[in-house]
Amino acid sequence: MICLPSRYHYSEAELREMTWAQLTHPDDLAADNEQFNRVLIGEIDGYELDKRFLTRSGEIVFAKLVVRCVRKPDRSVDFIVAMVQDITKSKQIENELRDAEWKFRALFDNGPIGVAYHSMIYDESGNNDRSTQVNAGRAYARVQLTATAHGLALHPLQQALQEYPEQQENHNKIHKLIDANNLKQTVQMWTRAGYGPTAGASPRRGLNAHLI
C-alpha cells in the first residue's frame, strides 16, 4: 500500500501499475532499495528516510518516507505500508538559507580588511511560521560562527525589522534596499559585520541584573 499526497497527480489505478523505481528519483533509488531489502529478509521491520519522488509531470518533490512491515506469525511479510510526507517547502527554505551562509562566507573570505557589511537572511515562501523563523535563527548562528572565525564582529539590528509605527521608515528602507517588497518576502535577520576594538569577556547583562 502506498499513501501519496494529491500533488503527485497519480490515480490509485495508476499507482497499482507503477513500480517503485518509476516513482523514485534515480539518485535516491539505491539507498531506498537497500533498506527495503533489509525489511524483506526480516532484518528490520521498517525504516524512515528523506528522498525525492517524481510527479506525473516530472516535478521533483522532496519527501519523508516512512515504511512499516506487518508480519505473519512466522515472521514472513504479510503486507508493507509506505507513507509519504511532502517536505519540499522546508527543503527549499533550508537550501536558501545554506546559500545565504555561503554568500556571507565568500564576503568574509574575499573582502578587504576593515570593510563592514550589512547582511540579511530572508525567504520568499510566504510561510512566515515558527519553523521558518527557527531555521533563519539557525542560519544566523552559522553566519555568526563564520564571522567569529575570521575575527569579525556581528551586530544584530533587529529592531528596525519590528513592525512598530516608530520603526516603519527603517523597516521600509531595509526592504527597499534589498528589493524585498513582495508581500511573500520576509526579512528574517538584519545585521552589520566588521572589525571593532577587542573587548574582554563580560556578562550579557549588567551586574545589577544578577543581584537579588
Q: What's this, in brief?
A:
With 212 residues, the chain is of the alpha+beta class. It is 35% helix and 25% strand.
Structure characterization notes:
With about 210 residues, this protein is of the alpha+beta class. It folds into two domains: about 1-85, PAS domain (Beta-Lactamase, 2-Layer Sandwich); about 90-195. Helices cover about 35% and strands about 25% of the residues. The chain contains six helices and seven strands; from the N terminus they run βαααβββαβαβαβ. It has helices at about 10-15, 20-25, 30-40, 90-110, 130-150, 170-175, and strands at about 1-5, 45-55, 60-70, 75-85, 115-125, 155, 185-195. A four-stranded mixed beta sheet has the order 1-4-3-2, sandwiched between helices. Helix 4 (about 90-110) packs parallel to helix 5 (about 130-150). The radius of gyration is 24 Å and the shape is elongated. The N and C termini lie far apart (about 60 Å). The relative contact order is 0.11.
Task: Please tag this protein with its features.
212 residues, alpha+beta, Beta-Lactamase, 6 helices, four-stranded mixed sheet, 35% helix, 2 domains, elongated
